[in-house]
Records
---
Amino acid sequence: MERMTKKYFWRFAPFIFVMFWSGGYTFAKLGLAYIEPMTLLAVRYGIAVCLLLPFILWFSKPWPASVRHWAVLGVTGFLLQCVYFGLSYLAFKKGMNAGTAAVIMSLQPILVAALGPTVIASRGGRHLWIGLIIGFIGVALVIVSGNSLGPSPWVAVFLALSALAGITVATLFEKWHGIKTDPMIGGFVQYFVGFIFLMPVAIATETMVIVWHPELIISLAYLVIANSIISVGIYMALLQRGDATSISSLLYLVPPLAMFIAWAVLGEAVTKLALAGFVLSAAGVYIVIKRPS
């Protein structure tokens, strides 16, 4: 029974990850009307740490025993929570256009595939690159359909490219070191690292004013539970179990699904071109994941 439960969990885990990760954009947008970006991230990480602590003390396996293991968790947390999320939010604050940011972030699966053979001895092939290109075209169609492409300040572009580097290096680093970590402990360390680095940034650069509107509470609840604890935890667990490029290709589904979630929550329009982009993105991911060994 337990084996069957695990089998079905890992079968559906990629879909759970994509759905919850995609919703993060909409709910972050919902909350940013009442709180500044770095303050939002610091509060989000602080709440996640408080929620995870009793669970890891009660349920988790033994904590990492070696200094190297602790260092690995700290580096991964810094790359993902501070570099990727922190610089992405700063890019938006500096004027980054949403569509331009999505195009930049959609390069991540291609970068992982290109750098994988050097860093983690992964193999590519014709099917891999066909899938990656089809998926990227699908993402581009979704973005163009919303008329969200446009110029951005060079500082914002630099921040977005640095955020892209952060999640790419985090993905490759996670596969390279090969250390297995209990997801709850890994998440706790990640968010603790994110909190201690980004809280000082928020204090130094923002007003720290928070308007506790019901929409902000809903936003934080989603970002902490669904986006931080569940989706990031599943992403790291999938990386420990599978191929980095295949897992990264799931990110192609994020812009289309984020568009549908924004339609459901915020009432934003969905066009026929966007639907075509979604189909291409899904086809690209399928080709990457199901490609011959």
---
Amino acid sequence: MSLSTSLQILKHKEFRLFVFARFFLTLAIQMQMSTINLQIYYEYSKEEIILGMIGLTEALPFIATSFFSGHIADIISRRRILLIGCSALLFGSLFLFGFSNSLFTWVHSFGMYALFAVVFVFGIIRSFLAVSTHPFMSQIIPRELYTQSATWNSTAWHIGSILGPVLAGVLYGYNHSFHANWCYGITCVLFICAFICFALIKSKPIPAKAKEETFMESMTVGVKFVFKNKLVLSALSLDLFAVLFGGAVALVPAFTDKILHLGPDAYGLLRTAPAVGAVLMAFYMAVKPPAKNAGISLLLGVAAFGLFTIFFALSTNYWLAFAMLLFTGAFDNISVVVRHSILQLSTPDEMRGRVAAVNSIFIGSSNEIGAFESGVAARLLGLVPSIAFGGVMTILVVLGVHKLNPKLKDLDITKLE
């Protein structure tokens, strides 16, 4: 595929607006969560387990509400859910701005527990955004452009993931008198930009259901679909365990401090390394998408992710650590694009929200649960051994999935269209 062909999708005005909205939303969320991590780690407790607890605090409400949010995404306008979600996140940022400026004296007395409470609420909001984003994107573009859309959507997400932690690290680490004020002020503006972009996209019709379902049947249809589809289940399982065990990113504040002996400003750049690698890989996949060789690309990509996670654990030089994290992000993005392509092409439109809910539980919450696993492992094994252990487990998962579903390596996405 030529570059001009891969750019065809950007001629769609609504898709361009969606990509910008995705970028602003991701940038704001990443900047906000990075700032919360830095605040808690540097101002309250320099313990790896605390970093893990932040992830768990967001994951639990996310999982608890995902099936319900998936049901809602299939019966009301997905655009409306995205607009309400952006508004809720904006109010959260305004609260954090006030908290960091000590405007809420009685709340400020709760210290880091107030921040944990905000993270908990964000987990609920994120569950609704997660089940609506990709299904809404699928309503904007024609079916033949699904693979390209997954690549560009991933690019927007990863560019936001690159800039968010960098901005948070620089603004927070440059002068501690700023604390997190500027960070939260900027996220307020970014959430407004995301809201405007989503608002400029026309609302899409609610997909008609093939048959009448009870509330409980509707809630579980996504689970039944995934577990009956061996291809979808294998792809989700690979990403689930790779993210779960390869949660090195969650420990970057501690790794930067205790192994590299650097401050929060260095954290920002190191935290973005996986996203830098992912964007570089996304540009490559925009020209040569993993279509006919999707299966083998998926398996090798996740295995390479685990391998470079091990190399990162053994790094004692800042730029070497940066390079290793960059490679983890590059190879991880292959599995992201392949998985989203499989889900878009295999899922009927009327159940995209509920299948997205299962995907979110498999993948979205595994980031936060992986952060908790990494924090606990760091406490039990030590910081470096825990990261290396995660990489080893990721490689073993690849071998296990290949053994259980040997046909996965022959996957050709073009035959799903």
